[in-house]
Specification:
Layout lengths: L34 H16 L7 H20 L6 H19 L1 H11 L7 H7 L1 H4 L6 H12 L7 E4 L5 E2 L3 E8 L4 E7 L3 H19 L11 H13 L4 H17 L5 E2 L3 E7 L2 E5 L4 E2 L3 H6 L4 H19 L1 E3 L7 E3 L5 E3 L5 E3 L2 H16 L2 H11 L8 H7 L14 H17 L6 H20 L5 H24 L11 H6 L11 H15 L3
Parallel strand pairs: 5-11
Antiparallel strand pairs: 1-3, 2-3, 3-4, 4-7, 6-7, 8-10, 9-12, 10-11
Helix pairs in contact: 1-9, 2-3, 3-4, 3-5, 4-5, 8-9, 12-13, 12-17, 12-18, 13-14, 13-18, 14-15
C-alpha cells in the first residue's frame, strides 16, 4: 500500500511526509462522519460534569486526600526540614508518584505544570516532565483487549506484529510500534482501560472541592477555582475520543499546508483504523527537542528551527484560528533534514471567526503598543465581561503608566503589586478562556525551547523580525480581518518590552538575560 513517490498527491491536503505509507483522502475516511457533532456534544457535556453537587464521589475524594496528604506529611518529616533544592526535589518526586497512582486526570494536571518552565520551581518541572511519556504503562494483555474491542476482531487480523513494550505512556494513552499485515510500519495510540470512568469521577471531585479553595491557597487567588476546573474539563474531555484527535491532526496539517509551512511533517492517520479508543498513524521519527547535542551534531540550524516554530504557531492562531495546543518536548521532533515533526493532537486550540479576529487584534495591539486595542480584544475573547469598562481596566491595572522594572522592586513592593493587579482583575470578573490558556502554555514551552536551542538569540530582534514578517507577508489580510491598518514602519515594541519589565530604550535581550531576571522575581516572590 506504500506510495513510492516524492510528491504524493495528498500533500495538497496537508504537510505530510513525502514517503507516504498510504494516501489521505478526508472525504473517504468513514471515521470522520459526524465528527463535528461529536465535538459539539463533548463540549456540551462539560457543564454537567462540573456542576455543583451536594456530595462528591466520596471514595475518590478519600483516596485523593490520602495520597497527597501522606506525601506531604512524609516530606515534612524528612527532606522538608532541610529546605533548599533537595527539599523541593523530594516533594516534587512525592507529588509526581501520587499523581501517577491517582491516574489520568492528575497526570494530565502534572503535564500542564511541567510546561511551566520559568514559572514553577525547576525541581517540580523536571520531575513532572516524567508524566509526559514515562508513566507506568498498562500490561500488554489489557492493551490487546482494548484493540480487539475497537477493531471488532483479533488484532492479528490487522497487524503482523505489535511491540508488547510501550514506546511511550502518558495520562490518557500509551503508544506501541507495530507493522500492518500490508507491510507498513505504524504506531498505535491506545487509550487506557479505565480513563473515561476515572476522569468523570475526578472532575466531579475537583468541582466539589473548587469552591472551598477560593481565598484559601495562594494559587487560587489568581483566578476563580471553579472556572479553572471547568477550563480543565473542557481540555481533558476532548482527549477521550481519538476520532477528535485524528480530525485535529488533519486540520493542523491542512492549516500548515495553506500557510506554506513546508518545513513541517504531520503523521498521516490511517484511513480506516481510527476509533474512539484507538488511533493508528504513520510512524515518524527525529531528534527530541531536548536532544540539543544530536540536533547540533547533525548540522541543523537551531535558530532557524526556533523561528519556524514561532512563526507557524502564530500564523496558525491568528490567520486560521486553529493551533496545536500542547507543545512539549515529547510532541516535537527535529528530523535529520531539519524538518519539524509534530505529534499528539489530543489538545487543539480552536477559535471561531469572532474570537480569531479578537486574538489577531490582541497580537497587533501588542506590536503597536495600543493598550485599548489589547483590552478590547481580551474582552471579546472572553477574558473580561462584555460590559467591562475598558478605560477603567486600563487605569486600574496601571497600563497607562510607565513600565516598572520588577527586578528593581523589593519583596514587599513586588507582592503588593501582584496583589493589586490580581484584586483589580478579580474585581472585573476576569477569567482565562481555554484558547488563551493553551496559547500561554505553548508560549511558556517556546520560551524554554529557545533556552535550549538558542539561548543567545536576541529576543527583541526576533520579535521585531516576526512582526515585520507578518506585516510584509500578510499585511492585507491582517488589515481586512482586524480593521487596523498595517504599517511596517509603525511597529512599536514598547508594550512588549514593558511586559518583560524593560524600559522602552532597551534594544536587545537574550533568553539567558530574561531567565536571570525571572529568577530574581521568583526568589523575591518566594521570600528567598
Amino acid at each position: 500500500m506504500s506510495v513510492e513517490t516524492q510528491h504524493p498527491p495528498d500533500l495538497a491536503h496537508g504537510t505530510f511526509s513525502t514517503s507516504a505509507p498510504w494516501l489521505v483522502d478526508p472525504e473517504q475516511m468513514q471515521w470522520r462522519r459526524g465528527v463535528d457533532s461529536l465535538r459539539d456534544r463533548t463540549r456540551r457535556s462539560v457543564p454537567e460534569l462540573v456542576k455543583a453537587r451536594r456530595f462528591p464521589p466520596l471514595g475518590r475524594l478519600v483516596e485523593t486526600t490520602r495520597l497527597f496528604g501522606w506525601s506531604v506529611l512524609r516530606w515534612r518529616l524528612g527532606a522538608g526540614r532541610k529546605g533548599g533544592s533537595e527539599s523541593k526535589a523530594d516533594l516534587s518526586h512525592r507529588l509526581r508518584v501520587s499523581a501517577e497512582h491517582l491516574g489520568p486526570t492528575y497526570i494530565k494536571l502534572a503535564q500542564i505544570i511541567s510546561a511551566g518552565e520559568g514559572v514553577f520551581p525547576d525541581e517540580l518541572v523536571d520531575e513532572l516532565k516524567k508524566c509526559r511519556d514515562q508513566v507506568k504503562p498498562e500490561p500488554f494483555d489489557t492493551v490487546r483487549a482494548t484493540l480487539e474491542r475497537e477493531l471488532g476482531r483479533p488484532p492479528e487480523h490487522i497487524f503482523d506484529w505489535i511491540s508488547p513494550d510501550a514506546l511511550a505512556a502518558a495520562s490518557i494513552a500509551q503508544v506501541h510500534e507495530a507493522r500492518l499485515r500490508t507491510g507498513e510500519e505504524v504506531v498505535i495510540k491506545v487509550q487506557r482501560s479505565t480513563v473515561g470512568e476515572l476522569v468523570g469521577k475526578d472532575l466531579r471531585t475537583l468541582a466539589w472541592l473548587a469552591p472551598f479553595l477560593i481565598g484559601r491557597i495562594p494559587v487560587s487567588a489568581l483566578a476563580n477555582p471553579p472556572a479553572l476546573v471547568e477550563l480543565f474539563a473542557e481540555t481533558i474531555t476532548e482527549e477521550l475520543d481519538f476520532r477528535l484527535e485524528a480530525q485535529n491532526l488533519l486540520d493542523i496539517a491542512s492549516t500548515l499546508e495553506k500557510l506554506g509551512q513546508t518545513d513541517w511533517v504531520v503523521p498521516r492517520p490511517h484511513p480506516d483504523l481510527v476509533s474512539p479508543r484507538m488511533l493508528v498513524m504513520e510512524k515518524v521519527e527525529g531528534f527530541a527537542f531536548d536532544d540539543v547535542a544530536g540536533i547540533t551534531d547533525a548540522g541543523i540550524d537551531t535558530h532557524k528551527v526556533v523561528r519556524n516554530v514561532m512563526v507557524a504557531f502564530l500564523e496558525s492562531a491568528t490567520l486560521h484560528g486553529v493551533f496545536h495546543g500542547d507543545f512539549h518536548g515529547g510532541n516535537l521532533f527535529v528530523q535529520h533534514d531539519g524538518m519539524i515533526a509534530l505529534l499528539d493532537f489530543g489538545i487543539t486550540g480552536r477559535m471561531n471567526e469572532f474570537k480569531r479576529r479578537a486574538f489577531l487584534r490582541l497580537m497587533m495591539g501588542a506590536t503597536s503598543n495600543d493598550q485599548r486595542v489589547q483590552m478590547e480584544a481580551m474582552r471579546d475573547l472572553g477574558a473580561l465581561p462584555p460590559d467591562a469598562d475598558i478605560d477603567a481596566v486600563i487605569s486600574d491595572l496601571g497600563l497607562d503608566q510607565a513600565a516598572v522594572d520588577p527586578t528593581a522592586l523589593s519583596q514587599e513592593q513586588l507582592l503588593h503589586e501582584v496583589q493589586r493587579v490580581v484584586k483589580a482583575l478579580l474585581g472585573y470578573g476576569a477569567r482565562l478562556p481555554k484558547e488563551l490558556m493553551l496559547f500561554t502554555k505553548n508560549m511558556i514551552f517556546l520560551s524554554s525551547m529557545i533556552g535550549r536551542l538558542a539561548p543567545d538569540i536576541d529576543l527583541i530582534a526576533e520579535i521585531q523580525s516576526i512582526a515585520m514578517h507578518f506585516a510584509m507577508r500578510h499585511g492585507q489580510q491582517l488589515a481586512k480581518d482586524s480593521g487596523i491598518a498595517v504599517d511596517p514602519d509603525e511597529i512599536d515594541l514598547t508594550g512588549v518590552k514593558a511586559s518583560m519589565g524593560l524600559d522602552s530604550d532597551v534594544d536587545s535581550l537574550t533568553w539567558a538575560e530574561l531567565r536571570a531576571r525571572r529568577e530574581i522575581i521568583v526568589k523575591r516572590m518566594g521570600g528567598n
